[in-house]
Amino acid sequence: MKKHIILRTLLFVSVGFLLLACEKENAEELEVPLVVSPAFSEQLLICHRGLPDFPENTYTAVDAAVKAGFKAVECDISVTADGVFVLHHDVTIDRCSNGTGRIDEMTYEELLSYDFGSWKGEQFEGERLARLSDILDYCKAMGVVLELDLADETRFDRKWIPSLYDLVKEKGMLGQTMFTATQDELERFLSVRRNIIVSISGVYDMAAARRAVALKDKVTLCNFSVPHHKLTSEICDFAHESGIKVKAWTVKTQMEMDKCVRRGADYIITELPMM
Q1: What is the pLDDT of residues 146-177, one digit of tens each?
Q2: 66, 75, 77, 252: which sits with the fewest CB atoms below 10 Å from its CB?
Q3: Whether the Cβ atoms of residue 231 and residue 248 lie closer than 8 Å to each other
Q4: pTM exceeds cut of 0.90
Q5: Handedness of CA 217, 219, 220, 226 (dihedral sign)
């Protein structure tokens, strides 16, 4: 009888220590302030999918954008059948490669057999599908902000967000990375406050802005992601009064750029050359 009591006591104590350890681990993550890239405090131009003259979402396009003077690059994220995060916008590889099929039905090794560059020009022949881990290493070395767009629900499943976050954290890039997703996609992951920089997509009007503002207290830094033609001074003023930045996308003309600046955008995704 005494043995059973002792064993139960030891079990309860062990479980208690385990729960305390988990709580301590979560607390420690937040006790250590996230070192945020100073670029987030500036009016930031973000290059859309890498430099436009290069095949989109490739290592070459990202490198060209950085060499052209951009301090930030936006890339779309997909996941292969074997769980490798890669840079790719579409559900299939048909448009941007010499292959066909869904990217999530092929392994990373299988995808490496396809050419992701020659559709843009013969000078890019042999460009391979870019792996996110390699791009994170590059951006860290260059001091560049990386925006990861996972807002397309046809391509990106919210269950992948924790794994993506872990990869970025492992690479020491949380302070240089912006996660762009819908409020619904982010809310489950942000059930507890996290060291993370987020961009909330789907903010098309004031009603959406008022709903999205609640996420501010669960993250290190956040902004509203607004299509440039939906951007208003009212949305910008509300965001700034709430301590939130505003990002406009995707600007392709100087007239659009000037309008976004006048209305108060802090960050602008663009396909224009670096000024």
Answers
A1: 999 996 766 667 788 999 999 999 999 999 99
A2: 252
A3: yes
A4: no
A5: negative
